[in-house]
Amino acid sequence: MTDFTGWMQGIQSRTEAALEQWLPGPQIAPERLHQAMRYSVLGGGKRVRALLAHAGGELCGAQPEKIDAAACAVEMIHAYSLVHDDMPCMDDDDLRRGKPSCHKQFDDATALLVGDALQTLAFEVLSQPDLLAQPLRQLAMCQLLAQASGSRGMAGGQAIDLASVGLDLNQTELEFMHIHKTGALIRAAALLGAYCGDCDEQALSALDHYAKSIGLAFQVVDDILDTEADTATLGKTAGKDAANNKPTYVTILGLERAKQLARDLHDSALAQLQVYGPRAERLVQLAGFITQRQF
Ligand code: GRG
């Protein structure tokens, strides 16, 4: 096995190349929309969801070329969510991935359309006819991504988030919001990678448990970074949650208990993976990366 950093950079660059291919060129009409889509997707982001898709796929012996499609689809949904989240009607943020957010660089209407078009492009990628030899499995993958993104997944979590401003949520309510808002897509990323390979029920269940725990850990760490890191490091506005009077793991638990929770979730994520040995190594390394990241 290569080192984790080398593996990560390899996945990041192959994902970038695959996204580049899927996104319509900047000279293709309507040029401004395609330029804004490319602006929002390419050249930024940690690609955590693509990494999860590949690590989940490795657990199940999937071919990297197949996983690329799942990774691109999830990254497109993620990019759409960031573009819409930054708009004035939602979180109203001017900075994303270290540059002006899409509606600042272009305009509100374009940003709205960028999100819409990225969402449908994700399903175009995932439904391409020659992706898998098992069409029913591929249909299940489309269904999984749709559920993870929709009102019982990410969009629902966003609705709860918007409604929770100024409220005193308890930890259970906060967890419910994050399981939907960020956790659902993170879970889908790992499982979609696995579906590209050949997984038995036990491996899928271990991966499901891993993805749920690491999805929550991702959010706890995000809350910690929002209080501890600076805007330049994050590439987005730091301290935004406190400024917006939003409940976070840090406001509910305090910094030290939030850090302990991230460690506990990390350990829980790995609990069922030991039996898979080297096949699960990337998942193990990725859990460490997600919980120890600085941005
Ligand atoms: C608009 C339907 C709709 C949903 C938006 C996920 C989301 C819901 C909004 C993002 C707001 C936010 C900052 C959430 C915290 C966790 C998170 C998703 C951070 C951004 O993800 P990273 O760190 O971003 O993976 P990069 O840029 O690395 O891809």
TrEMBL record:
**A GO BP annotation:** terpenoid biosynthetic process
Q: Which GO terms describe its cellular component?
A: cytoplasm
InterPro entries xref list: Isoprenoid_synthase_dom_sf, Polyprenyl_synt, Polyprenyl_synt_CS, Prenyl_diphosphate_synthase
Q: Which cofactor does it need?
A: Mg(2+)
Q: What is its EC number?
A: 2.5.1.1, 2.5.1.10
Q: Fetch the Pfam families from UniProt.
A: polyprenyl_synt
Q: Which UniProt keywords apply?
A: Isoprene biosynthesis, Magnesium, Metal-binding, Transferase
Q: Which GO terms describe its molecular function?
A: (2E,6E)-farnesyl diphosphate synthase activity; dimethylallyltranstransferase activity; metal ion binding
Instruction: State the family it belongs to.
Output: Belongs to the FPP/GGPP synthase family.
Protein name listed in UniProt: Farnesyl diphosphate synthase
